[in-house]
Amino acid sequence: MKNTIMAAALFSLAIHLPAAAQLTLTDSFDYWEDQTTHNITVSGVTFQGAYTCANDQTLRCGNCGVGVGAATVDMAVAPGCDTVMLVFFLGWSGNHSVVSVDNLWQGTIGIFGSCDYDTILVSNAAAITADSLVEVRVRDTILGCNGDIQMARLDVYSSAPATVGIPLQEDERGSLLCHPDPQSNLLRLEWVTTDPDQALTLYDMAGRVVFSDSWQQGPGPVKKSIGLSLSNGFYHARLISGKAKRTGHFYWLKE
Q1: Superfamily of domain covering 19-158
Q2: Residue 212: which of 196, 192, 220, 204 has the closest Cα?
Q3: What phi, psi does 193 have (nearest 5°)?
Q4: Helix (H) or strand (E) holding 128
Q5: What is the pTM (predicted TM-score) of this model?
Q6: CATH architecture of the domain formed by 177-252
Q7: To the nearest 10°, the Cα dihedral for 40, 5, 107, 138?
Q8: What is the mean pLDDT of each run of 10 residues along the chain (255 residues)?
Q9: How far apart are CA 150 and CA 135, in angstroms?
Q10: 12 in helix, strand or coil?
Q11: CB distance 69 to 94 below 8 Å
Q12: CA nearest 37: which of 1, 76, 77?
């Protein structure tokens, strides 16, 4: 599994996430540059695509009349999460190509024009995300150029993982926003408080406390950075502000 996340959105596109899902980026894969990671396998006709978008080369599945092609990668997700969104950055596509996750058909992807993206939303996914990985396969199923697809990158977003033994509660007065920066060993938090007493606890997926601290804070919007050294994985945050309890979650992924 690749241990880096590309911070900048390819092609400078704004990705629109379902607001209610509260999805977090958990993995990223570059189809042309990363062919030694993510357990990638290719079959049929695959080769370097003609399109380069934002200096990112593409992998082309299919070769017009020569045959069809497929590319399969293993992508990290939050363990036991119920929703997964796949964002495919594409250089070009013919007719829509078929996407399967853990050998289950999920739909098709394709774009009009060049250098754009398409998405697949997988719901009720807990049964296939329990092991923290999903196998994503894209197939050109049509002989001829109309089935070909040129892929630059795949980003995977996950909903909050299933939790066992972590004493977290939702806060009726607001959320705790978590912005991890693993490359700088920092976690940046945002919330609003009306109480001076603050107590923060971070948990790993096994319910173990990996960080705790308490301090006094003035009322109003708060932005706080915390230095951390964590193993790659999903974490939960619990902040007690007086009588209010706030929770958040984040994925820590470092080279």
Answers
A1: Galactose-binding domain-like (2.60.120.260)
A2: 204
A3: -130, 150
A4: helix 126-129
A5: 0.67
A6: Sandwich (2.60)
A7: -20
A8: 34 50 80 88 86 84 82 90 92 87 93 89 90 91 83 89 52 67 90 89 83 91 92 84 81 76
A9: 19
A10: helix
A11: no
A12: 1
